[in-house]
Design a protein that fits this description.
This protein has eleven helices and eight strands. The chain has 289 residues and is α/β, with parallel strands linked by helices. It has a single domain, classed as Thiamin diphosphate (ThDP)-binding fold, Pyr/PP domains (Rossmann fold, 3-Layer(aba) Sandwich), CATH 3.40.50.970. An eight-stranded mixed sheet has the order 2-1-3-4-6-5-7-8, sandwiched between helices. It is globular, with a radius of gyration of 18 Å.
Length: 289
């Protein structure tokens, strides 16, 4: 049987990620799906450091660093430049964290999506500004500790539903992915490469120092995020939603929350509220909304 994941490695050793970094595993799988004929645009984020100091790089593809707010705009410019030279095959991928996507970069992201620019935009979501010291972003879930929400109760606001915002732009392709489901992630990147227009892939990327868990649990937590319904895996193509990993018997959200010290201040009532909201969101998703 032909393996579902290409053996070729485009990412090498030499990166400077923390042990158990979910975004590093995700980059490896993303490039396996996209192949070497790819240009990666990175705004300020963990990965501007992780790739290695110029002129060295742990990625076997060109990297262009952009201002924090301009990943999508820069990627559009790179794509336009390639097409002006007659190159319509090189894939341009913007690779940004949740701070540069949910918050600082959302204006450029929305503009590129509205224009249906022919790029892939990836948000590796670790739910805070991890590169600068674990500050809260609008991707931080309610109740999570960060250095800017250290008081009892953690983050006071729910996580922004960025996927709903991107779906409202009527883009050709949107997908969610997480490193515990490697075949699913590689397939989605390979599929996204074959589609023209704006494509958005939202990766849930566990972060050991930010989420405060044992680095050996990255894949387990990644899997639990799906099995509990915290982060369902699905794709939306031309408006049609398909759940990729059905979970008819979902595990309780506490299985995902309790190994993470960022949630250690949650009360039983808080956990019950998260369970109810997860159930509500799962029900809406299973109905295609």
């Amino acid at each position: 049987m032909k393996p579902s994941i290409p053996a070729q490695e485009t990412m090498t050793s030499g990166h400077v990620a923390c042990q158990g970094c979910g975004s590093t595993i995700s980059m490896r799988y993303a490039l396996k799906g996209l192949g070497t004929n790819t240009v990666v645009v990175m705004p300020a984020c963990c990965w501007t450091i992780l790739a290695g100091a110029a002129p060295q790089s742990s990625l076997g593809v060109p990297i262009l660093h952009s201002p924090f707010a301009a990943a999508a705009a820069t990627a559009c410019g790179v794509k336009a430049g390639l097409e002006a030279k007659g190159d319509k095959e090189t894939q341009v991928m913007a690779w940004a964290g949740d701070g540069g996507t949910f918050d600082i970069g959302i204006q450029a992201l929305s503009g590129a999506a509205e224009r249906d620019e022919d790029i892939i935009y990836v948000c590796y979501d670790n739910e805070a500004y991890m590169n600068t010291g674990i500050q809260r972003s609008s991707a931080t879930p309610a109740g999570a500790w960060t250095t800017t929400t250290p008081a009892q109760g953690g983050s006071p606001r729910p996580k922004k539903d960025l996927d709903a915002i991107l779906r409202a732009h009527a883009i050709p392709y949107l997908a969610t992915a997480t490193p515990a489901y490697a075949e699913d992630m590689v397939r989605k990147f390979a599929k996204a490469r074959r589609i023209r227009g704006f494509r958005f892939i939202h990766i849930y990327a566990p972060c050991p120092p930010g989420w405060k868990y044992d680095p050996g649990l990255t894949i387990e937590l990644s899997r639990l995020s799906v099995q509990t319904g915290i982060f369902p895996l699905y794709e939306v193509e031309d408006g049609r939603l398909k759940i990729n990993v059905p979970t008819p018997k979902r595990k309780p959200v506490g299985d995902f929350l309790r190994p993470q010290a960022r949630f250690k201040r949650l009360s039983p009532e808080d956990e019950a509220a998260i369970q109810r909201e997860t159930d509500r969101r799962w029900q809406a998703l299973s109905q295609g909304s």
